[in-house]
Structure prediction request, 1008 residues.
Amino acid sequence: MPDTLRFADAESDPSIPKDEAKAQEAELRAALLKAQYDRLAKADRSLLIVVAGIDGVGKGGTVNLINEWMDARHIRTMAFGPPSDEAQQYPFLWRYWRQLPAKGRTGIVFGSWYAPLFDALASKNPKRGKIERLASSICDFETLLVRDGVQILKLWYHLSRDAQKERTAMLLSDPETSWMVRPEDRLVAKNFKRVRRAAGTMLNLTDSSLAPWHVIPSADERMRAIATGDSILQALHDPPHKVSALAATGPWRPSSESASQEGGRRLRRLTQVDYSVKLAENEYDDQLAHLRGRLARQVRSKAFEKLPVVLVFEGHDAAGKGSTIRRITHALDARQFRAVPVSAPSPEELARPYLWRFWRELPAPGELTIFDRSWYGRVLVERVERFARPAEWRRAYQEINQFERQLTDSGILVLKFWLAITKDVQLERFRDRERSPFKSFKITPEDWRNREKWAAYTVAANDMFDLTDTSYAPWHVVSSNDKRHARVYVLEQIVKAIDTRLAQ
Amino acid sequence: MPDTLRFADAESDPSIPKDEAKAQEAELRAALLKAQYDRLAKADRSLLIVVAGIDGVGKGGTVNLINEWMDARHIRTMAFGPPSDEAQQYPFLWRYWRQLPAKGRTGIVFGSWYAPLFDALASKNPKRGKIERLASSICDFETLLVRDGVQILKLWYHLSRDAQKERTAMLLSDPETSWMVRPEDRLVAKNFKRVRRAAGTMLNLTDSSLAPWHVIPSADERMRAIATGDSILQALHDPPHKVSALAATGPWRPSSESASQEGGRRLRRLTQVDYSVKLAENEYDDQLAHLRGRLARQVRSKAFEKLPVVLVFEGHDAAGKGSTIRRITHALDARQFRAVPVSAPSPEELARPYLWRFWRELPAPGELTIFDRSWYGRVLVERVERFARPAEWRRAYQEINQFERQLTDSGILVLKFWLAITKDVQLERFRDRERSPFKSFKITPEDWRNREKWAAYTVAANDMFDLTDTSYAPWHVVSSNDKRHARVYVLEQIVKAIDTRLAQ
Prediction:
């Protein structure tokens, strides 16, 4: 539809008589509360209400109103101003991810992820590239949330130019209300055409069946309130989207149609690894000390203060992830890295989209986060053990690629290592562990069970390489039957990659 | 003891032969793991290991070692450098509070709350006032943590001046290890006497039976490792301190010995409130609009950008806390305030000291946090309903005063309101709520049960006024049988208090 046609209704500035509003309000409030409690009791989804609209239409009052009408104890207002110095160090969506409400709960987002897109669209010289990048990040973000249990209701508050002007003038005329008018509000009438066009484009760019926009007529306070309540009530009653059907059309292909053989790409399949590579002890000591010294100097350099680094370690049990990570952290200052061992999610984490826990651990510039297992659990253990439904892990490849793209786009260096061992070496190491009094904790019945699913894990790993080995975050498959070789190889890749980035 | 005597052992630089160390290490590692798992299974306490010591003794390596010896999945290394811009906006202890591990878990604190105290003591011109303030904040902080389920093990790594010098020289001589020496490390030998005296004073100032210091001889790497492991093992085996006996000697006095009648102080007891005060509707409308306008202008002023504000609302059920808060938030920009409704703690919150959840919600400069119920729950509902043991709620008065002192010392304006109603007015409001389809959610069987304990709540409230009405964070007891009077009165106090602060 033409960008601005959807505003026709709102710009007719409909109103609602006092008596009628009063009756409707009473009914609405009771229904809203009931729906809120039903949702809380089920706790299968959270609700995000995005409050947006042109300036000077009373959005702030609406947030108060929602809190008054519903049970405020289960609502969190998340108001975002311009990003802080801290937030600016992270990907654009970082601060929204951090505050996602748990399932059952409601969040009101004020000054949402739409603020930068709207500003870009309403600028006098709109930059096409930036607009497209923002819009597609937003669509990816919302799609992922909705599919993963976050319902999104997007409200756009709108009125005619005359009504906006009139409202602003009325508030200004009384010294007791003039504070409600912000400088931005006064500019709206002047630039109404531009603002309106920007809004129309934005709504069209980001409207989707998963997270649709609702335009709320805002000239009349009562109308605004009732329409807001109606939209929320509808959303609370809405059954979860049939996302599985949608999700199944995702980018997943069975591994037989692998893309990893194309052109001159490195080998990416576990069967192609040369497991016989070895490094002698004296060579190992020399190279390890040398590489560690280089890494230590790199991370202490001035230039590194601007570089955030994410290291991901995956591999079969007993592949040597932990000991390799310790060889790396030995060269780092404890104040600049975080080693994050990833095991089964906590209840707090289960109540949110699976990527939430990883967003919380992202490094700031000058920091490294080392993930001992990672978001790839979604397409490895969750796939093999059926903790995730096929629709969920199939769409995860794309979600992960988008996630890593957001990290690298914001300047984070992402390095992913798969430590590859053979089944017999795993057996040796399991037996070793069982014999050692201080390693036996590392071996549990679960490890033996996982071992039985070796083939399934290998298939999952190969699919993962096929579908998530991107130019911006490539996989390193590391021959690891010889621990010494693996450690030196990994350190070498890290040092090289940091060198390349610091030289830029 | 003389400040530096406790270092005599460590400065004899004891060492341990390789074979002996190897045998001990194997035994220690197995025992540490077992103790760690036992602790996890019980989950009654967390363990904080503070790693501190003079520079250049291998503290960083020790952190790696602990992670290697124990199961790193249940350990969190919390390394603090100089505070970020964000952290500087909050009280000194804010960033340590935020990261407290849950019960059962272990945190290694590196660059702890001792860093600023040590710097102050080692400076060429030590400032007595600052040192005392820091030391007493630290003691209060640790006492509270220990009593509330956080065990604290404080390790001070020490060696002789010669050994430190030798270690630094040795590391520097090899290009592959020279990076391990930081500029600070080189200065230690030069200033050894001063550093040593500062350390001695610090340990004496902050040693306590609840959180004692252990000096770890650090010249010999094996000795350092074994001594560290031994200390941790001992701590993990330690039964919880008998803190209840200690706690009972706290500052609590029965309300008959009240201090609130002293001098010209405002009335502070619920029986002394004049419940008949009323405000006519037209006066109310005028005053409300006027005060709201003033508040709105205040919080939008340039000067307010530097002021953080905490508002606390307490009172019997149906006292009007929620509706009063909404009258305030109406004047605020949604981006600058957070309304925090406080109900029963979540599992995540229960696993940590009770003040933890409130530390997480503190405002930055230019922000307001409004608590609808608060930390006073500890001495109100938790006392009356026996969720807290007598020893716990009795010591809470002092803990709360210390907490509020830390807030106000860091520049936060703290205003506390008790909305006082009579028992018959509560009954009226309960009945009103039951009749209203959209207020009935506010009234539950629990409210009726609480009502039966009206007298007990009143006693608890009076004790609270006696013991927490401080000069830096005074209580405002607000006659609230008439909602209009209460709202206007509260707004007035807020506007006045902010005015006073902005004028400073």
